[in-house]
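help with this:

***
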Amino acid sequence: MAHFNKIPSFILQLFRWFNAGCLLFTILVCIDIFILPYNIKEEKILYRQEVYYTGQTRYRRQTYRTQLDNVFLITENFRFPYHKVQSFNPRAADSARMVTTKIFKFVKAAYVKTDEGEKELKQGASMFGTFMFIPIIFALTALFGVSMRHNSEQLSNAAIINIILIVIQLWIYGYF
């Protein structure tokens, strides 16, 4: 489009550096996740945060029922959701063992110690499971933005898409 040719050169240079920085960040995250060894850390569960929901009963619309929806196990550095499909009592757990990455401290797996033994905390939607497509799209867009450095339209589009994906990733991690 013609209006992308009117972008000042310092903005295009900023977009080039931004796409290159996104690509370097993606390479660093891949090194952290796939190459470097993991840290295994044990932490005490400090408290449990119970989340309730209130809803109407099925047959009588006037009465409301409060029910336990979720329990979060809070340790010194991490917060884990306990899902109902897991086969242990969340109140019986006293400590958790985490397998984390070296640089960014992403939790790959978590285990809680109960009287019955060690149980795995199943993670719900995360960047290592359901939302794995977001970092992949982020990396491909950054690579595309670096390779299209002389095409101002594609360069601008790649930078804008990466900004949107950064906001989505930060929202999924809970920073917004």
